[in-house]
Write a structure and sequence with these properties.
The chain is of the alpha/beta class and 184 residues long. The chain has helices at residues 16-30, 45-49, 56-67, 84-90, 117-128, 156-172, 176-183, and strands at 3-8, 34-39, 70-76, 102-109, 133-134, 138-141. It has a single domain (3-176), classed as Flavodoxin domain (Rossmann fold). The structure holds flavin mononucleotide.
């Protein structure tokens, strides 16, 4: 099965985006994938804001990208685009850090007016970094994600949509066998 890096670009300590990602991570693990979570907000601010490419935390994050077969990129929509925090990390990675990788872009937002932010803002950045295959992404409204607590962090309708894009990502990584096993 595949090695997957699951990156949350939210700066919030009570992030809905991160909760949504952890929900997706659980499904990917049940399908047999090895999932490593990475919260950009846990990286040193001085390294991110000071463009410290050589900081050990940045080189370690770079290595996590290098080791991954697949990458889940999750971001809140801020000002009609992805978060500045996410971009601060992407800017410190090698230009082609996503070469050969399959990528699942996910976003959360407060308004359907920005449902296309993944496609007009994030997808071009991921392409420029050499992603081999960017599968269909998904935008989830924040009102469909519980702030904290509860058995499921997302509403049933949101969960179903996420299952579909997650399974397409898993299939693209060659996870169909594991997916069928998980379903059975
Ligand atoms: C500074 C800021 C800017 C935002 N801008 C937008 C926006 O332009 N479009 C939108 O749909 N939602 C916007 N939102 C709402 C967030 O995208 C939404 O609540 C998201 O789920 C928050 O995720 P988080 O808890 O992981 O930070 C904004 C929220 C904040 C705090």
């Amino acid at each position: 099965m595949a090695a997957i890096l699951s990156v949350s670009g939210s700066p919030s300590p009570t992030s809905r985006t991160t909760r949504l990602l952890r929900h997706v991570d659980d499904r990917l693990r049940r399908q047999g994938h090895e999932v490593t979570p990475l919260e950009v907000r846990s990286l040193p601010p001085e390294a991110l804001l000071g463009a410290d490419f050589a900081h050990p935390a940045i080189t370690a994050a770079t290595e996590l990208f290098a080791q991954a077969d697949g990458v889940v990129i999750g971001t809140p929509v801020y000002k009609a685009a992805y978060s500045g925090l996410l971009k601060s990390l992407l800017d410190l990675l090698p230009q082609y850090a996503l070469t050969g990788k399959t990528v699942l872009p996910l976003a959360t937002g407060g308004s359907t007016a920005h449902v296309l932010a993944i496609d007009y803002a994030l997808r071009p950045v991921l392409s420029s970094m050499g992603a081999a295959h960017i599968v269909q992404g998904w935008f989830t409204l924040d009102k469909d994600i519980a702030a904290e607590g509860g058995a499921s962090p997302v509403t049933p309708a949101a969960a179903l949509a996420l299952e579909q894009v997650t399974d397409q990502f898993s299939d693209a990584l060659g996870g169909r066998t594991g997916r069928l096993a998980a379903a059975g």
